Amino acid sequence: MDQTSKTRQQLIHEVAELRLRLANLEKNETEYRATIESLRSQVVIDELTCLYNRRGLFELGEQYLKIARRLGKPVLLIFADFDNLKAVNDNFGHTIGDQVLAQTAKILKKAFRESDIISRISGDEFVILAGINQTRDIEIITSRLLHAIEKFNNAKRFPYVISLSLGTAVSEPGSTASIGELVKSADEAMYLGRKTRK
Q: Which residue, 73, 177, 178, is CA-closest to 116?
């Protein structure tokens, strides 16, 4: 075999090796990206309810607000506090308490659109961000949620009832309020509503 043939064979071999390495790198990169995505999901997703957690709400919520403001659309933030979780835990145990929270999450997912951001920000507190066209949409949306809860309770498939106290805040297109400020306003509105109900 002459030198030229030998060199050609070496080149073919080297190219094959490079292709193999490249394929391995691409595979590793795909696995790496999948791992990063999985870890990111774990960081922003609440394990019990599979809703966004507090961090997920604040990260995605700010982006949601920016897009809505750019489009000149108002955004509704609903603060929902579970009324009787302690009583459920005391009467039925924490396993049932967890079931209640998971059921509440299912109701929220059914009551809102996929494009809305639904989160569990602490033990028994949920926050929803929903795009609206006008302020009268608030009553329609909250009524839809309350109707979904009533339907669940009327079915009487479980030994407990779900009851949420709601507070709302609206970010108008010209507003500069942050997610944190909206959560605070809606939380205060929820607390006042609960107080007047007693």
A: 73
pLDDT of residue 39: 46
Q: Domain holding 61: CATH number?
A: 3.30.70.270
Does some domain include residue 158?
yes
Q: Compute and round to an integer the Cα radius of gyration of the chain.
A: 25
pLDDT digit string, tens, across residues 74-127 = 999 999 999 989 999 999 999 999 999 999 999 999 999 999 999 999 999 999
CB atoms within 10 A of CB 97: 21
Rounded to 10°, the helix 54-71/3-44 angle is: 100
The reported pTM is 0.79
Question: Which amino acid does the sequence have at 47?
Answer: E
Q: Is residue 49 part of a domain?
A: no
Residue-wise pLDDT tens digits, 58-79: 999 999 999 999 999 999 999 9
Query: What is the CB-side half-sphere exposure of residue 49 using CA atoms within 13 A?
Result: 28
Domain count, the chain: 2
Determine the 3-state secondary structure of 5 from DSSP: helix
> Are 8 and 101 within one domain?
no
